[in-house]
């Protein structure tokens, strides 16, 4: 007769004896191969874990927080299965997340087929952990996974999931957990059976966005920046130093918030103290700390450092908190590279005469970014300064390492310039350095003789906006060509016509500063003359401003709570009060007057330095405004600053907000469910919250109380504190005082080995906060509903079979999977439709269904069960269920002629002829989703003989397609008294 591929496969299977046997690579609890067979005898892996339960501490988190997940493997009675791996299987959980990140824990990546291997060679089975972590676990993205495989230990597994500050609250998070049994296969691979799969949705709230206050707390220069400097005394503000350009890259600024739970985007601005555009960058704050990387900065100079956070307040308004205060300055100095690359050439004048006062010529080193620099390596350069058309003699400057050289003046001696009029084009060059840009110097044939009037000579002082700096000019440049006088220090210029009678020119200046002064004419016909003159000083103060440490005008100041919430206080440094004259010049010095501060809050007390009745704006002390506790939370209030000085009538009003007193208001405990299995370990979070639901800052003492509630039967529950690194503290004794730092702790709660009830209570010793009570029920029962994923809830054989379970010993359980293969009517292999699952095994004396079964006594009651979970495409299709059976004496090699066909639900047995056509139907039926077959059950007295039993399960469709279990059902019947 013609044999098909199925027949060949069956023949090979039965003749090879232990076809389904898989070597176990895991030893039993004694460290020896699992009795009674060793690996070579063909022991296969199995587990008694039939169900999973997954319990979170929190299902709703703020972005930037971490949650904990307990992974529990349960046996058929609903307790954590401490011995689920004694059959050789490895129990593991595959955890996948959206938005959440799982720390990898540093485990190695084992080879496929090894005891710690996951589903693929890239999987890694490690031990996860609960943690009490504030902030980001690691800045290295390689330290995270969105999928991890975690090994269970004694039926318990742990993992923690971190949600970044930029997690999307709208989308939320999702955690998918698969509890799986891993078996090794004979060819060195693995087989994975899913025991339970659950999806958990996580609600993500935005991070605590109100920082309360910001502080630039640290500056770190780049790793390669040998000239970088950190501030060793940040008490007066951060003062850092970094090198311009790539060498200085990698510098960081650390920003901290008063609110240790604050998170969100931090905007960092570096503003040049001189001219130039601000430099902005951003960073993420996590649990009150942000480390912001600075970009490469190429322009040397001093930069203010300002950190800002914008958030939405409880009133819905957008608010911004800045790190810039009224007193201390945070700044970074960017220095040049110290490596000259080019030269710069400058002249203090644009016009000179052939022989006269002349122009001062200066040469400087430039680094690669155009910054004036020194030669940090040491040594000097000889620089040649030449005129392009040889209209001026060559000049030489020797620049030392600091960039200094002797004074060079061009045009003060006869013979230096060969033309009476024209343009000189000067450039500086030196070996190894790029030539400077060209400096154009006009040579004219007209020159003034300028004399400063005695009352405006150098050393005298004149008040801004008065007739000041009068000079005598000997020549009249003309009625339409006024004389220009420019204050070189402030770059302010004033023009006036020369008095034709006296020859006097009077300039009016509004900016405070001192000379020298450059005298010239508007038309540019005369050589420029440099003279020394009076210093311009400010006028009488007419206005008052409050400026912060970055010299920015502010209209509000901060009011803070005093330690212990004993009151509120506004601090106004004297130097923050700035007086100005009518032109905006700062007015400083003792003659400016005294200022006073007035609050509109009843009971507010203003304290001036040394008990005075007023304060000096130029002082370095502070003025304090203390408010009574009753004023807390009243919101915005004005402060009036007034000046006692002649002619001053314009007081300034600023505002301050009186914050509410933050008080410890609630104790909250978090665990997803309080009903936990025997032998379980779950994570419970406990938080101390203020009236706004934010974590309480600082340290608070809480009493830990055990039991005291009606129905408590477990007298000594085991509770340990979980540390930031996942380690555990000692068992917490009842009535112990626990210090909460930062408002949160995580505890490991152990269900223990007996069922019952216990209560954990967290008590505020002061009695001002309501206690938090968490009552735990420790159970030994699975959920009552009968489902494919909760077979233990199926209490009858009919309900058990209906969901794909097998009923034995009054317990519904899932038979072991036996793989699936398929062929068509021509004997050609076909793809097994997705969802096709063959299962089967033996129950001995009412025990769990296993395959291969451990040795059975000849007198044992044996039940043989097979099941088929049909693919959707085959559900409702008529099919012949096929069962092949072989029984041989112990030690006899199995041959094809030993195989029989079970027909008519086992009522008849006939020899198998080796063909598919020769297999009669065990049962013909329309396939359902779940199809369970009680193939055989021995009567009282068992088989009565020793031997080895093999069965193969299949089904045949009308078109000839056959699906069959890849692995045989095996049982060894062995009398231990005779062997």
From TrEMBL:
Domain of life the protein comes from: Bacteria
Keyword Signal: yes
Organism, scientific name: Thioflexithrix psekupsensis
Residue stretches of biased makeup (Polar residues): 113-139
Protein name: Big-1 domain-containing protein
Residues covered by region (Disordered): 106-145
Signal peptide bounds: 1-21
Record's keyword terms, sorted: Signal
């Amino acid at each position: 007769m013609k044999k098909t591929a199925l027949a060949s496969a069956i023949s090979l299977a039965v003749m090879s004896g232990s076809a389904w046997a898989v070597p176990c690579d895991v030893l039993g609890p004694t460290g020896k191969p699992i009795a009674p067979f060793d690996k070579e005898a063909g022991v296969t892996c199995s587990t008694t874990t039939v169900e999973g339960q997954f319990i979170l501490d929190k299902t709703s988190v703020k972005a930037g927080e971490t949650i904990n997940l307990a992974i529990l493997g349960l046996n058929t009675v609903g307790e954590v299965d401490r011995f689920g791996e004694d059959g050789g299987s490895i129990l593991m959980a595959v955890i996948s997340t959206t938005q959440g990140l799982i720390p990898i824990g540093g485990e190695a990546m084992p080879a496929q087929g090894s005891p710690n291997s996951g589903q693929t060679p890239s999987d890694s089975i490690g031990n996860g952990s609960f943690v009490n972590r504030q902030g980001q676990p690691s800045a290295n993205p390689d330290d995270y996974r969105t999928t991890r495989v975690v090994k269970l230990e004694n039926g318990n597994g742990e993992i923690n999931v971190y949600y970044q500050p930029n997690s999307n609250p709208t989308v939320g998070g999702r955690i998918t957990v698969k509890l799986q049994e891993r078996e090794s296969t004979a060819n060195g691979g693995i087989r994975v059976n899913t025991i339970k799969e659950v999806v958990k949705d996580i609600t993500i709230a935005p991070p605590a966005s109100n920082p309360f206050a910001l502080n630039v707390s640290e500056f770190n220069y780049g790793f390669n920046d040998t000239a970088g400097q950190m501030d060793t005394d940040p008490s007066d503000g951060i003062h850092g130093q970094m090198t311009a350009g790539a060498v200085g890259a990698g510098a960081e600024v650390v920003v901290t918030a008063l609110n240790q739970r604050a998170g969100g985007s931090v905007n960092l601005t570096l503003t040049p103290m001189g001219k130039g555009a601000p430099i902005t960058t951003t960073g993420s704050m996590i649990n009150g700390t942000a480390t912001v990387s600075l970009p490469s900065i190429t322009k040397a100079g001093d930069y203010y450092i300002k950190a800002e956070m914008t958030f939405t307040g409880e009133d819905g308004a957008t608010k911004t908190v800045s790190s810039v205060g009224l007193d201390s300055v945070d700044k970074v100095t960017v220095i040049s590279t110290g490596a000259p690359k080019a030269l710069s050439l400058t002249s203090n004048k644009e016009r000179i005469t052939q022989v006269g006062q002349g122009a001062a010529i200066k040469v400087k080193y430039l680094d690669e970014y155009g910054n004036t620099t020194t030669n940090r390596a040491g040594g000097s350069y000889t620089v040649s300064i030449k005129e392009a058309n040889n209209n001026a003699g060559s000049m030489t400057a020797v620049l030392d390492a600091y960039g200094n050289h002797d004074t060079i003046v061009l045009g003060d001696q006869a013979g230096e310039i060969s033309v009476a009029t024209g343009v000189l084009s000067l450039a500086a060059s030196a070996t190894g350095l790029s030539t400077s840009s060209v400096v154009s110097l006009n040579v004219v044939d007209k020159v003034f003789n300028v004399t400063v009037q005695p009352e405006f000579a150098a050393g005298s002082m004149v008040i801004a906006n008065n007739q000041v700096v009068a000079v005598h000019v000997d020549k009249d440049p003309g009625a339409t060509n006024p004389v220009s006088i420019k204050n070189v220090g402030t770059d302010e210029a004033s023009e006036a016509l020369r008095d034709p009678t006296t020859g006097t020119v009077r300039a009016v200046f509004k900016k405070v500063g001192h000379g020298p002064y450059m005298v010239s004419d508007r038309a540019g016909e005369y050589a420029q003359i440099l003279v020394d003159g009076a210093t311009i000083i400010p006028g009488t103060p007419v206005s008052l401003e409050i400026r912060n440490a970055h010299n920015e005008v502010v209209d509000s100041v901060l009011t803070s709570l005093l330690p212990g919430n004993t009151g509120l206080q506004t601090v106004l440094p004297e130097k923050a009060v700035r007086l100005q004259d009518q032109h905006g010049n700062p007015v400083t010095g003792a003659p400016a007057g005294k200022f006073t501060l007035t609050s509109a809050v009843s009971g507010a007390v203003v304290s001036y330095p040394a008990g005075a009745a007023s304060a000096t704006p130029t002082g370095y002390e502070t003025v304090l405004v203390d408010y009574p506790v009753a004023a807390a939370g009243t919101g915005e209030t004005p402060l009036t600053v007034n000046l006692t000085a002649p002619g001053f009538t314009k007081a300034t009003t600023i505002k301050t907000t009186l914050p509410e007193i933050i008080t410890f208001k609630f104790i909250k405990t978090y665990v997803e469910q309080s009903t936990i299995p025997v032998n379980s370990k779950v994570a419970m979070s406990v938080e101390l919250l203020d009236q706004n639901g934010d974590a309480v800052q600082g340290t608070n003492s809480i009493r830990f109380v055990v039991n005291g509630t009606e129905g408590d039967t477990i007298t000594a529950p085991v509770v340990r504190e979980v540390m930031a690194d996942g380690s555990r503290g000692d068992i917490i004794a009842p009535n112990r005082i626990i210090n909460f730092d930062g408002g949160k702790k995580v505890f490991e709660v152990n269900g223990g080995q007996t069922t019952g009830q216990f209560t954990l209570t967290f008590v505020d010793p002061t009695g001002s906060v309501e206690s938090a009570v968490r009552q735990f029920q420790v159970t030994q029962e699975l959920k009552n509903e009968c489902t494919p994923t909760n077979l233990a809830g199926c209490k009858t054989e009919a309900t058990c079979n209906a969901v794909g379970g097998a009923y034995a010993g009054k317990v519904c359980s899932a038979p072991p999977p036996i793989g699936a293969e398929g062929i068509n009517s021509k004997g050609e292999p076909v793809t097994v439709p997705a969802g096709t699952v063959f299962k089967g095994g033996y129950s001995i004396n009412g025990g769990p269904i296993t395959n291969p079964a451990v040795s059975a006594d000849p007198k044992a009651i044996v039940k043989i069960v097979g099941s088929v979970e049909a693919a959707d495409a085959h559900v409702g299709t008529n099919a012949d269920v096929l069962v092949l059976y072989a029984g041989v004496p112990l030690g006899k090699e199995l041959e094809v002629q030993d195989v029989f066909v079970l027909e008519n639900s086992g009522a008849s047995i006939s020899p198998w002829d080796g063909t598919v056509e020769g297999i009669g139907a065990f049962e013909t039926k329309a396939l359902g989703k779940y199809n369970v077959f009680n193939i055989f059950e021995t009567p009282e007295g068992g088989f009565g003989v020793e031997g080895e039993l093999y069965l193969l399960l299949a089904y045949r469709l009308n078109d000839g397609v056959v699906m069959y279990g890849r692995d045989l059902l095996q049982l060894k019947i062995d009398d231990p008294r005779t062997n």
